[in-house]
Design a protein that fits this description.
The protein is an alpha/beta fold. The chain has two domains: 2-71 and 285-312, no CATH class; 82-276, 3-Layer(aba) Sandwich (Rossmann fold), CATH 3.40.50.410. It has helices at 9-23, 33-38, 40-63, 102-115, 141-149, 162-174, 198-207, 242-251, 262-272, 292-312, and strands spanning 2-3, 67-80, 82-88, 121-127, 131-138, 181-187, 210-217, 224-227, 231-234, 256-259, 278-290. It has a six-stranded mixed β-sheet with strand order 5-4-3-6-7-10, sandwiched between helices. Strands 1-2-11 form a three-stranded antiparallel β-sheet, with no helix packed on it. The radius of gyration is 35 Å and the shape is rod-shaped.
Length: 318
């Protein structure tokens, strides 16, 4: 037997003390206990009624501890997959070929994507020259969209480090028990820095059964980015390396896409959303047989009976 709220039973004991003081009229003027003892039948009846009331209150007190008997465990599962959004935040993501710029479009559509996936766990990794886990895997949709909306350019240096970004996503995904693990890599550049090549990173992802969907973002290889006081320059290094992006996806059994405008990016994310789901155990629920209502019902009947007998046989008020 287990007790959910043992401390609540103390309230029942306080009720017993208060009712006993009232029953024996301890604080009434002219204590009548002595006169009642002269009438042995009436006194005996009062003792019996008192015992009935005490038993009733004790039952109620026991019920207030919420006694219950554990029966078994029930597994609770739901459909889920793990998705890491790996987002390029290099300077080229400020290019204006997508309005208002590439990063703003990416953030808008990734937020919409996250809001439609309350059952999936989503994490966010950012990369430029360095890589950074902005948000570990979570199902908190509000938190995910907030972190995506706060993504900014400039704090991870210069360059495009796709290999290390994929490697970090793979490392983060390995600890998860979910069978379906997905990386969505969104970039507008070619990898030019880092310790791990994109292909080596993809091979690691394949080893652990992680699919990498790659999205090349941008419509103009000659797009310009803002510099200084209202000036613009061509993107250093040019456009994304679609050949490498496709090889990454092919190695892991996924697909590669080109997103040349906002609507195309939305369609691509919608297609990725059709991935097969899997089930994981999210918690264990213990199944109990509850007894509190039975004890409370018995206690209430006994206590009520004591008060009725007190009223009609002892001629005392409730």
């Amino acid at each position: 037997m287990e007790y959910k709220s043992i401390y609540f039973s103390i309230l029942g004991l306080l009720l017993l003390v208060a009712w006993s003081l009232s029953f024996w009229r301890v604080f009434h003027k002219g204590l009548v206990l002595g006169s009642e003892r002269k009438d042995s039948f009436k006194f005996s009846l009062k003792v019996i009624i008192y015992v009935i009331g005490v038993i009733g209150i004790l039952y109620i007190s026991y019920a207030m501890s919420f006694p219950r008997k554990p029966l078994s465990y029930s597994s609770n599962t739901k459909d889920v997959k793990d998705i890491f959004l790996v987002v390029d935040v290099s300077k080229s993501m400020e290019a204006r070929d997508l309005k208002p710029d590439r990063l703003a479009v990416a953030k808008e559509k990734l937020e919409e994507f996250a809001k439609l996936k309350p059952n999936d766990r989503i994490g966010v990794i950012l990369f430029s020259e360095k890589v950074f886990t902005l948000l570990p895997l979570t199902t908190d949709t509000e938190l995910i969209t907030k972190y995506i909306s706060d993504i900014k350019i400039g704090f991870l240096g210069s360059g495009t480090n796709i290999g290390d970004a994929i490697g970090l996503a793979v490392a983060r995904s390995q600890a998860s028990e979910t069978k379906k693990k997905v990386v969505i890599l969104l970039t507008d550049g070619a990898s030019n820095v880092g310790n791990l090549t994109p292909i080596k990173a993809a091979e690691q992802a394949k080893k652990f059964g992680i699919k990498i969907y790659t999205i090349g973002l941008g419509s103009d290889s000659n797009a310009r980015i803002p510099i200084g006081w209202g000036g613009f320059q061509r993107i250093p290094g040019g456009s994304f390396d679609f050949k490498t992006l496709k090889k990454i996806s092919d190695l892991t059994g996924a697909k590669s896409f080109k997103a040349q405008d906002k609507s195309a990016l939305k369609r691509i994310l919608s297609e990725i959303d059709k991935l097969e789901r899997t089930k994981i155990k999210v918690n264990n629920q213990r199944v109990y047989e509850e007894f509190y209502y039975k004890y409370f019902f018995i206690g209430f009947l006994l206590f009520f009976a004591a008060e009725v007998l007190r009223k009609f046989f002892l001629r005392e008020a409730f």
